[in-house]
Design a protein that fits this description.
35% helix, five-stranded mixed sheet, Metallo-beta-lactamase, Chain A
Amino acid sequence: MEDVKEQTKIKLEHLELPSIRFHDHLVFDDGQHRVELIKYGQAHTKGDGVAYLPAEGIVFVGDLAVNWTFGNNLSDQDVRYIGWIRALENIAQLPIKTVVPSHGDLGDVNLLHRQRDFIADMWKQVKQGLKAGKSSAELKKTVQLTQHGIFAGDLQETEGMIESMCERAQTQPDWNSGNGNPE
């Protein structure tokens, strides 16, 4: 576990800002290979994007999806849960053979569906619990996510994600709409 924490620390002296910017879509095509950089809106962070290789059916999703037991960082300060859920739905519509997550093993389109279901289920349960007057501490004990396998594999991580979601929930653009469903 300590090795994982060490690997995730960013050394700011090595941080380099992008030299090319794009609004929603940027294509590189040398006649042999095509790479599409696509943004799906604010999700895990303000600047989420994927790299898609259509001929190969490969998509690099960064932190939009992970495939390991430590869950995903649902506590980024710029996270938008509904945006994240929608981004995963939209990416899953691409013709994909291989999903390359930021952490863990390669996957397929099913990885995107499973990540989406995990976030949507947590969002629904947290939103309903908070509307019912439950505290973050209560929700950490009552929100049930074990059916999502590896995404909820580490209880301490999952409780931290629930707490973060509780803290950010009332500032989300869609907080007051609907009955707790992610739509």
